[in-house]
Amino acid sequence: MRTDLIQGKKEWRWLLLIPAGILSMPPLLIAMLMGTRLLSIVAGPVNIWNSTWHVPPVADTAGYYGLSKTEWAGLKPNEGLVSRRSGFRLNPDHRVEVIDVPAFDGFGEPLNCNYNGTGDWRLDQGGGVTLTVSIRVSTPSPIGKPSCDPISLSLFQLLGHSPPYRFWYYIGDPDEETGLTYFRRIP
């Protein structure tokens, strides 16, 4: 009879796991939701290791920025999403020239136009350094795709701790880590 009593206690022990499971579900859910964001902060394209936290001198950021050949190779250029000429020139006097930078909606879907034109630029310090490009005058696209209307874009994150800097162009939701990297280069 003693063994029956011990076996009966063992059968009820698993019921103690139910309250523990219920209490652990909210912290697990929160950890899962925050875990992907925390991982992207450490290992994503824009992370704490390659983000700039102080606005660098204008002389260090002025220049022409374009896509590298390897970056451009995987972007389906035949479908017209990204032109080989895609880039922008930041002048030391804060004027900007934008050439065929692709336009996307808030969900990362391509729009039927590219950003082309002239205007001005500035670097803003916040959660890293961002580039704001204000296109004041639209110009025709060199590839014949329609140009978007004048706009102010704050979708560029400055990457690197010293020159030559790079810019990450967010496409769609910034949490999804989709974007293009523009490198400083000679046109």
Features:
187 residues, eight-stranded antiparallel barrel, single chain, alpha+beta, 4 helices
Detail the poorly predicted runs: none
Main sheet specs: 8 strands, antiparallel, barrel
Total of DSSP H or I helical runs spanning 4+ residues: 4
Strand order of the largest sheet: 1-2-3-4-5-6-7-8
**How many beta-strand runs?**
8
SSE-based structural type: alpha+beta
- The domain count comes to 2
The gyration radius over C-alpha positions equals 25 Å
Distance between the termini: 90 Å
Structural notes for this entry:
This protein is α+β, with helices and mostly antiparallel strands. The protein has 2 domains: 2-43, no CATH class; 58-184, no CATH class. Helices cover 26% and strands 36% of the residues. The chain has an 8-stranded antiparallel barrel. The chain is elongated and about 75 Å long. The mean pLDDT is 81.
How would you summarize this macromolecular structure in one to three sentences?
With 187 residues, this protein is of the alpha+beta class. The chain is built from 4 helices and 8 strands; from the N terminus they run αααβαβββββββ. Helices cover 26% and strands 36% of the residues.
What's the layout of helices and strands?
Blueprint: H1 2-13, H2 17-43, H3 58-61, E1 63-67, H4 69-73, E2 87-90, E3 95-104, E4 110-126, E5 128-138, E6 151-159, E7 166-170, E8 179-184
Antiparallel strand pairs: 1-2, 1-8, 2-3, 3-4, 4-5, 5-6, 6-7, 7-8
